[in-house]
Amino acid sequence: MLLLRRALPPSTAYTTATRRLRVPSRISTLPHPHRLATTSSTTSIDPGFVPRPSDAQRKTIYALSTPPGKAGIAVVRISGPEVLQVWKHIVRRAEPEPWRMERCKIMHPTGGNMLDDGLAVYFKGPKSFTTEDVLELHIHSGRAIIASVLGALSHLPFCRPAEPGEFTRRAFLGGRLDLPQVEGLKDLIDAETEGQRRLALEAAGGAVSARFEDLRTGIIRCLAKIEALIDFSEGEDIEDGVYEDARNDATTLLATIRSYLGDNRRGEILRSGVHLTIFGPPNAGKSSLLNFLAQREAAIVTPVPGTTRDILELSLDIGGIPVIISDTAGLRPTDDLVEQIGVERARKAIQAADIALCVVSCEDTDATRSLPSAVADLVTERTFVLFNKSDLRPDASDNEPNNNNGTPTHWWTTSLKTGEGTAEFLTGFAQALKTRFDLDLDQDSPHTPLITHARHRVHLESAAGFIEAFLETTAEDVVIGAEELRYAAQAVGKVTGRIDVEDILDSLFRDFCIGK
Ligand SMILES: Nc1nc2c(ncn2[C@@H]2O[C@H](COP(=O)(O)OP(=O)(O)OP(=O)(O)O)[C@@H](O)[C@H]2O)c(=O)[nH]1
Ligand SMILES: [K+]
Ligand SMILES: [Mg+2]
């Protein structure tokens, strides 16, 4: 069978028979050589696809949408088909005017007692967050009030408490949000730095999805050309050069995907944080540096070499960039079993880091600034160097560090004891990180990284693989070529959660310029 040529993940398996039913009739009446070739018994449903439950199965859900505790207001959100019933039972008024805040008494549905004096707003579906009818109750935020309102809702048989993330899930299922927007929304709530906020806002607003969708449509356009060649042989009913056109399109698309993938993981790093490992010989001042950056006594600092054993990890905001810093044991040969384990862990942490900062005491280096042998070999193009304890060697030069392997690196000189050079180090280091990861947070960068989750990278890599496979086929293999493109489109579609190639293919096919 033709499709066995490449091992395909089961999720991309495709039922050609069902697919073909939706191709426009004037085309499907023609012979399809690949109809026989690509029949498969597996279904085309992606494991990530969640069928939309019917309204009958869908209960009305409620939850407190603000953090619990004492505050000015709390918002209880209710979503589902019975929202107007909820209104009737606990606000006890005529039907609400949609999207208008109303002052109201919130009543217990069975007893006659009033629970709070608050505000309510009704969002009529589909113009709501979940696309269902939504009611928001703005009440005073206090434990007893919140408990009484949630308790009252639990008395309504058609309501149940929402599961974690269920409002957003319904927004996704209702088509209000696609997957990058859901991810963006979560990242936005989790954002702790300016860079994270901007990146997440872009995703939540749909700009990221639009770029993935452009890519997917581009692949499908290319596929439409190949499909046309299958249905009409070139030169007969169809313009010349269509095959070449499709190949050129595919080459451009591949270059675009490659450019997205070759982003040094900027988006993922900006979202989840730069992993920075501090390393160096014992007593260089590594833990002192961690404490200086954290502005608190997070790590134990003593004059005893070998003080730090375990890795100590902290998350910090350095110039708008989230940085996860690891302080490690000083590197030296040792007979102490515990210290040996610490040194081993330090080496692993250096390897795993996005960036390493090698701290060396000015006392441990000479006028040529040769790095001690224990650390010189660990310097790579991802390493920055800090010469510390400049107060102990006022005569120290300011030469570039010499690691004997010629790797150029950024370096600074400080005294963490007197504070000399620390301000320059801080600004220089933040700038070096921005440059390193191409994170220009000060301007509205036109080249915001596209990939912010490992999931995006996996699907784009797989799409690139399929397009490459298409480019390896020849004009005689158009049937296989079309399948490769179809898989490529599906791989990109998995990023946004849209995997149905046929909808778009059909419409493109209809517009496709076929000779009269
Ligand atoms: N004179 C001077 N002493 C410093 C400076 N920075 C740190 N120290 C001292 O150097 C000693 C070692 O500092 P640590 O921060 O514990 O060094 P470390 O590299 O973490 O050491 P280990 O964890 O043992 O590998 C402490 O007594 C610090 O107070 C500096 O700039 N000048
Ligand atoms: K020490
Ligand atoms: Mg230490």
Largest sheet, strands/sense/barrel: 6 strands, mixed
DSSP strand tally: 12
From the N-terminal CA to the C-terminal CA, the straight-line distance is 34 Å
Mean pLDDT: 83
Number of helices: 18
CATH topology of the largest domain: Four Helix Bundle (Hemerythrin (Met), subunit A)
- Which structural class matches the secondary elements? alpha/beta
Fourth-tier CATH superfamily name of the largest domain: tRNA modification GTPase MnmE domain 2
Name the ligand types: guanosine-5'-triphosphate, potassium ion, magnesium ion
Rg estimate, integer Å: 30 Å
Sum this structure up briefly:
This protein has helices at 16-21, 25-28, 33-37, 83-91, 143-154, 166-173, 179-190, 194-204, 207-231, 242-261, 266-272, 286-294, 337-352, 373-376, 422-436, 454-472, 478-496, 501-511, and strands at 60-64, 71-79, 102-107, 114-123, 134-141, 159-161, 274-279, 312-318, 321-327, 355-361, 383-388, 411-413. With 516 residues, the protein is of the alpha/beta class.
Task: Summarize the SSE layout with pairings.
Layout: H1 16-21, H2 25-28, H3 33-37, E1 60-64, E2 71-79, H4 83-91, E3 102-107, E4 114-123, E5 134-141, H5 143-154, E6 159-161, H6 166-173, H7 179-190, H8 194-204, H9 207-231, H10 242-261, H11 266-272, E7 274-279, H12 286-294, E8 312-318, E9 321-327, H13 337-352, E10 355-361, H14 373-376, E11 383-388, E12 411-413, H15 422-436, H16 454-472, H17 478-496, H18 501-511
Parallel strand pairs: 1-6, 7-9, 7-10, 10-11, 11-12
Antiparallel strand pairs: 1-2, 2-5, 3-4, 4-5, 8-9
Helix pairs in contact: 7-8, 8-11, 9-10, 9-17, 9-18, 10-16, 16-17
Magnesium ion binds at residues 286-287, 299, 307-308, 327.
Domain TrmE-type G: 273-438
Family: Belongs to the TRAFAC class TrmE-Era-EngA-EngB-Septin-like GTPase superfamily. TrmE GTPase family.
Keywords: GTP-binding, Nucleotide-binding, tRNA processing
